[in-house]
Fold each of these.
Amino acid sequence: SRRVKLFGVEIDALRMPEVVSQIRRQLDSPETKTEYVVTPNVDHAVILQGNPELQAAYADARWVLADGWPVVWASRLLRQPLPDRVAGSDLAPALFADATEAKPLTVFLLGAAPGVAPRAATEIQKRWPHVNVCGTYSPPLGFERDDAENERIVEMINAAAPQLLILGLGAPKQELWIARHHDRLQVKAAVCAGATIDFLAG
Ligand code: UDP
């Protein structure tokens, strides 16, 4: 699909329905690679400048979507218009709403404070009965620097065998984490979704 270069970041010119159908195709594909979504905001552009590892994480992302209106407005000012914003916090519910009895969805929630993701799981399953939250985990402070802990998290997710991983670790932690570990994950797709697990918990 068409990409627009803004603040040094290549952003997909896609609307929500196209993104949902592309991710659904990935979820159903026999491919074993974990494809992931990042949703940059204008403040990410600033962090990206001095952070080559984060730039690489963005470059590896299969979908790069405009999280907020300021990104869309900037694209219009620069005469490379993006059609819409596609926020990570909207994308997770849109993917859940796309699940049906014939096409159910299994999801793992990684992140948010202890106790929040299990509450989100209950809400998700109440609201979208064709979504099965097959696991949740709230990593301890500083986990990202602990190799053994990261290995345990990868194994925990693979053992739960979700199709979709929702990462709610905040930016840029979630983008760096998925870029470092997606090679060993056996999930079809992952969404870096900021505070979405908190929103879903209500
Ligand atoms: N979070 C986490 N582990 C961390 C840091 C943050 O699970 O080490 C969670 C935090 O509890 C919240 C989410 O990440 O649920 C998003 O945090 P924030 O709002 O700061 O991120 P943003 O939405 O700005 O990316």
Amino acid sequence: GTKLIIDTDPGVDDAFAIALAARSDEVELLGVTTVFGNVSLAATTRNALRVLALCGRDDVPVAAGADRPLVHPQPRRASHIHGHDGLSGRSAALPEPGREPGPGGAVSLLASLISAASEPVTIAPIGPLTNIALLLAVHPELKAGIDRIVIMGGGLGGGNSTAMAEFNIWSDPEAARRVLVEEDVPTVLVPLDLTLRCAVEAGWLAKLGATGPVGAALHALTPDYLEAYRKVLGWDGMAVHDAVAVAEAISPGILRTESFPIDVDCSAGPGRGATLVDRRPPGARGVGEGEVAGARADIAVDTDLDGLRAFLFD
Ligand code: BDR
Ligand code: CA
């Protein structure tokens, strides 16, 4: 199976994504690294440890990474969506972690796991891209050891943090640009447009809650998050953005992707943090000034929605 490292800022949907990988026998979860994002680094790290403890996976190494973006301060956290503790105020539904993160830091853990792996690994960044930008900056020689970077982020038709920008990209646009545009690594981008379509119904969550202790604890995290998403979606459900990206990391091809030219807006204006994707047919694309430059990403554009939800449930 795929060898996977998750880089995360839990986050309710991050918790679902970590549990998905931690409990799957189709994937070897080599490690989890944490980053600031939905809440502070201290809180996201503690939450990652809690989710792994819940899943009986205290064997998976965890290391904490960046506590802020590369260049500008983070504009805002997402505690209005994920609660003050990052888990909808319900972190007590998960076990207290019986351990601390490893001593070396996220970039060191990523580097040592990639170097030690017998085959190229998949990285699934499901928070701001700061740790991954630092990894590629410090260890360019490790790019050959990376099979794919499957990112939850971006929006083709607009954002959620601002009109144009999705939260993970908006939280550190310079880091996102480094990973998606400046570095020559295979990237898959799973944008908001698709993750919102993959949202799950309240009834799906209730059924998940009845499957056993892991399902019950995940379900227990959701009441306030569900409430917040009801307003976004206009129906009784919630987005599990990060779990959609991790599903693709575990099962390549579960999402349909198309390769498009991409750039990230790092200006200070209202487009800051937007993913600029050229979806014109190849013959109609321009070159030169004012056009999206040469970098490309495989962008997830569609999936079998019910098949995907069944995969997450299993
Ligand atoms: C992304 O932002 C975070 O709040 C979620 O965990 C997800 O990674 C969605 O825009
Ligand atoms: Ca996240």
